[in-house]
Amino acid sequence: MSIRVALRRLVFGGAAFAAGTALAYIDDPEQLPFDLSNVAQKALQQLDAERAHNVAIWAAVHGLLPIEKRADPPKLRTTIWGKHFSNPIGLAAGFDKDAQALEGLLGLGFGFVEIGSVTPLPQPGNDQPRAFRLPELKAVINRYGFNSQGLDVVRANLIAYRRSQLHRPANQPGPGPGLVGVNLGKNKLSEDAAADYCLGVSKLAPYADYLVINVSSPNTPGLRALQSRKELEKLVKKVKATRDGMPWSAAGPPPLLVKIAPDITDADKSDIAAVALKLGIDGLIVSNTTICRPPAVAEHPEGQQTGGLSGAPLRDMSTEVLRDMYRLTKGKLPIIGVGGVSSGADAYAKIRAGASLVELYTSLVYEGPSLLRRMKKELTALLQRDGFASVHDAIGADHAIPRR
Prior knowledge:
The protein has helices at residues 3-21, 31-44, 49-61, 102-106, 151-166, 193-204, 229-244, 266-279, 295-298, 315-328, 344-353, 362-367, 370-385; strands spanning 78-80, 83-85, 89-91, 112-118, 131-134, 139-142, 179-184, 210-214, 256-260, 283-286, 308-311, 335-338, 357-360.
């Protein structure tokens, strides 16, 4: 289907929706823009996955997304690495690869947005088509392969965003300005991965609230080999030395995290935990997409596409890896839980398993921007039900390990 036809359906569908349901928004008029945006989300699903994604980024860049004007519930506020998050729900890397749409995406009410993965040199990624929806399973398979405009373009975008925030009114309604994570990758043909990551740190660290070494995408040949103990230790030492050698204010450098795969063995988990604790990594992201194909996925017409699987089928696998990593690191490291998050209950399960923060992406593709509002309400209710004064108090609640 052409973009013109999809937009025509959006206009007429949105108008009908608004006319038929306007009375339902008298008590909460701010909900209407979110629900209209969900209508747009359904129209975009008439396009192929990558084209729909590009249209969504365009809409975010041009201020066409709804804006959250309500403050977040106090229970959702948390502080990690000395940084204040108005809520623990973030947008995972892969959506805004080049930091083009930060203002629009953070305006939806995310506590933070992680951009990237960013490669030193621009590269187109793998051949198209390279993203495939499995709507019956609320899943996506992608093999983008680190398509990136490169460090210089992303650096300019981050500088522009930071400058725009200097003029943000202090009393502007809403959850408050969200934080920005920067996810770093390597170029496909690079023979020196450490040099790529170090260059990324040197150029982008001053504009990041946290940094991520992504060694777990299944779509760049040889990348996951960097998760082995010897390779990971060498890599982290070099990247950490680059970060620590830069001039910083009294607040210090941004935290450095490592993003790992869900497909790792128990030995891999132990090795990663040992390296993280030994070298003083500031946190982990658990997890990236999986190369596994659960039975329901394997039977789907698109299930055998090459690439990383994300969405609902990944939820339990990624949560179990998160649980293991929290135990192996003795609750000492903040963990960002990713994979299959589509409800407040999903986020809460990851938090109780050991996540300090959670991220989503695929569920936004299927459910639209109002998902975030619903998740915050659900998560707040679950914290209230179980007697937690704040989301921070629930971190690792399923473990006997004292929370740090």
